[in-house]
Design brief:
The chain is α/β, with parallel strands linked by helices. It is 37% helix and 15% strand. It has two domains: 10-253, Type I PLP-dependent aspartate aminotransferase-like (Major domain) (Aspartate Aminotransferase, domain 2, 3-Layer(aba) Sandwich), CATH 3.40.640; 258-389, Aspartate Aminotransferase, domain 1 (Alpha-Beta Complex). The model has no long low-confidence stretch (mean pLDDT 96). The structure holds pyridoxal-5'-phosphate.
């Protein structure tokens, strides 16, 4: 049977078949999980020349290649590294592309542990760290300095969901000689192909939707042709490779990610619209809502929305936020997201210098899982009532 070019296939076909050819391994539908440190060479000359595809466990295995190749096809990237957590997928490219005396621009609505790494370790290593407004757009040109080497974007922003004008930022950053990284965890490559919009390296916490079951930690960074050698070099130097069982679980998760995302998207949008109408809710921060300030940009660039957004209560403080959370019975109280189950957390904006509101009341972040929407509505109704009574 003639093979259809992979690029012409639909997204769910790519997700179900990408990265692995069953005929390459006796017809088994799934690839083997290769547990490896040592790889044997047939003779001394081959060993001296490292003249074979696999040389040592830290440098890749058929299992890591299967996931990396599936992701390269989704991203349109030249190469993908797999690291042990989403946070390592942020820190590895920053370490690869920044040196003492360099300047990095980071969006102020960034994932909090990224800020902790930048303010702690990058500053200690002599890197100048500055934060910018997520709404800066082409205005980032005015923040670029001769020593600006990296612009780190994240869109939508963590917890507050600001949409960034990625093409405008990438254009200005490139004109000034910087590379652009994007933490694209929220959209996944299914809803935003970052490299097509000028991003040089796209970062994913595969812990979230790709893994999908709240039981695996993994990070992925995909680079374009120009940035791939430097990213791969740093990855090899740092030795922060991912474990084979985790890699396998994420490849397994990819197979169903398309349909899971559709359901997360549909349920989250329905609940976001419904919450906008509820008493006790001041605002819903979901870019798929017409009321969201970034809605037009989101519609221009993204092909969908995943299942996480925030609600702003109409007044109150920690007491009301805690009453809301404590009244939930289906939503769990816990960090992370992207799994099959619904979660809620209180949002802390105390680390922000720019993207910090003001908001009318406390912010609560909701991850909408795969449960039935009517049950989630009942849970949220009870939580809003509890917040109003508190
Ligand atoms: C969760 C998350 C990470 C980190 O992922 P872990 O696997 O939990 O380390 C990075 N970036 C964003 C935007 C995230 O939401």
């Amino acid at each position: 049977m003639a093979k259809q070019p992979a690029g012409k296939r639909g997204i769910n076909t790519q997700l179900t078949h990408g990265g692995y050819e069953p005929r390459d391994y006796h017809g088994f539908v799934n690839p083997p999980v290769v547990h490896a440190s040592t790889v044997l060479f047939p003779d001394a000359a081959t060993m001296a020349g490292r003249a074979q595809k696999y040389t040592y466990g830290t440098h890749g295995t058929p299992t890591s290649d299967a996931l990396a190749e599936a992701v390269n096809a989704l991203e349109g990237s030249a190469g993908t590294i797999l690291v042990p957590s989403g946070l390592a997928a942020v820190t590895t490219p920053l370490l690869a592309f920044l040196s003492a005396g360099d300047h990095v621009l980071i969006v102020d609505s960034v994932y909090h542990p990224t800020r902790r790494f930048a303010d702690g370790m990058l500053k200690r290593l002599g890197v100048e760290v500055a934060y910018y407004d997520p709404h800066v757009g082409a205005g980032i040109a005015g923040l670029m300095r001769p020593n600006t080497k990296v612009v780190l974007t994240e869109s939508p922003g963590s917890n507050t969901f600001e949409i960034q004008d990625i093409p405008a930022i990438a254009k200005a950053a490139h004109a000034a000689g910087a590379v652009v990284m994007m933490d694209n965890t929220w959209a996944t490559p299914v809803y935003f192909r970052a490299l097509d919009f000028g991003v040089d390296m796209t970062i994913h916490a595969a812990t979230k939707y790709p893994a999908g079951h709240s039981d695996v930690l993994l990070g992925m960074v995909s680079a374009n042709e120009a940035c791939w050698p430097k990213l791969l070099e740093a990855f090899t130097m740092l030795g922060c490779c991912a474990a084979p069982d985790d890699v396998y679980q994420v490849l397994r998760g990819l197979r169903t990610m398309g349909i899971r995302l559709e359901r997360h998207q549909q349920s989250a949008l329905e609940l976001a619209r419904w919450l906008e109408e509820q008493e006790g809710v001041a605002q819903v921060l979901h870019p798929g809502l017409e009321s969201h300030p970034g809605h037009a940009l989101w519609k221009r660039d993204f092909s969908g929305a995943s299942g996480i957004f925030s609600v702003v209560l109409a007044g109150g403080g920690q007491k009301q936020a805690h009453a809301f959370l404590d009244a939930l019975s289906i939503f769990g109280l816990g960090y992370s997201w992207g799994g099959y189950e619904s979660l809620a957390v209180s949002v802390f904006l105390g680390d922000r210098t720019i993207a910090k509101g003001p908001y009318e009341g406390p912010l609560l972040r909701l991850q909408i899982g795969l449960e039935d929407v009517e049950d989630l509505k009942a849970d949220l109704t009870a939580a809003l009532e509890a917040a109003r009574r508190a």
